[in-house]
Design a protein that fits this description.
- Its EC number is 2.3.1.269.
- One of its GO terms (cellular component) is plasma membrane.
- By secondary structure, this protein is of the alpha/beta class.
- The chain is built from 15 helices and 12 strands.
- Helix 1 runs antiparallel to helix 2 and helix 2 runs antiparallel to helix 3.
- The longest helix is centred in the N-terminal third of the chain and has 28 residues.
- The protein is globular.
- The two termini are 42 Å apart.
Amino acid sequence: MYIGLLKGIYVYNHVPFFLAFFMYLGVCIYQLMYTFLPFYLVKKFNISFVLLPVFYISFEYLRSIVLYGDPIGNVSMFVYNMPFFIKDASWFGSYFVGLKLLFVNIAIYYLYNKKIKQPLIILGLIACLFFVVNLPPKNGSLNKTIALIQGNIPQSQKWDSAMLMNNLNVYINATIKTDADLVVWPESAYPFLFSPRDFDKFLGNYKTPIIFGAQTQRGYNYYNSAVFFNNEKFDYYDKHELVPFAEFIPLRKYLSFIPTVTKFGSFTHGKRFTLFDVNGLKTAAIICYEEDFEQIARTFKDLGTRLIVVITNDAWFSHTPTFHLFYRDDFYRAIENNIYIARCANTGFSMIVNPSGKMIASLKPYTVGILKAKITFNDEDATVFDGFGHYFTLINLIFTGILLLIFIFRKKKAA
């Protein structure tokens, strides 16, 4: 599932294969640790197998907050395209959907083994959860046409100095011939260190608002940014969740003895949550795998955004299973926050997801194209998840800790 990481590190970052493989293996072992521990604890302390989902989801949540956070590959990703099953993410989020999915599988296991009592209880609970009623959206009156430009620039030529201007022209030419209220380019689509003066030379007279990815500099700090251009004015959102060993080096001063590490530049973590005003439409931009962090989208929703634009460059993982890991969480972000998600990716998967978690438009991966869609934005309507449902993961974690202490005490008492 993570083989694309090895490709990205070794082929495109030119890290020696041995070191790249060691880094890749480390990620795999780290992921497996959080998968293995729930099973180990349930078996070691004679905890009922019915409670395994509670433990499993707690460790998924821990993985997303420990160290630098890694929410990728949660069990909920397997049902992202089943709106009838995932609709209650608007109540308690994607982790709750994962819990429900695991309970379904536990119930099937018990039914298969003809253990009657437990599945009846579990299936009864699941039946109730399937009929969670979501409030119908309010009628909206704000219409905007969104255009997502998928450049399909191979990673092997993306930073080739001889190709930089050609790469930029792919987006400029597509933008000029596009009639829309908002045009979006992918992450790092602008191939030079961003300068407003230089950008004006290319599209200074263009009147339509544009959101595009670029590397920016302020003072001595460099950022992976989403730049907003509107009527000769610029604003920025700087990526908060940087990718370890790709966009920054954790514990850099302790690893400086490795020659490859000293060659890596590092971005600075962003601090602001910036909203862009697209002629009356409050819009947020999130970058790359920030789409997998539920708290980032929720923070933007709390600030009043009505559209979340995801810009990303998944060319690092092209034609590997890793390519399909990231976009699946956008379906949950849409449902959790009752909001449209517009995902613009360099090589795909570019798409628009409505607040019900249904994909209403998309482009075929590994193609050059422009995805246009006219969207009617509903009046602002908060979900249970926005209000307090996001505390589900914390409550589940506390509940898991209490259960574990009870079973540890019982085992010691029995001994």
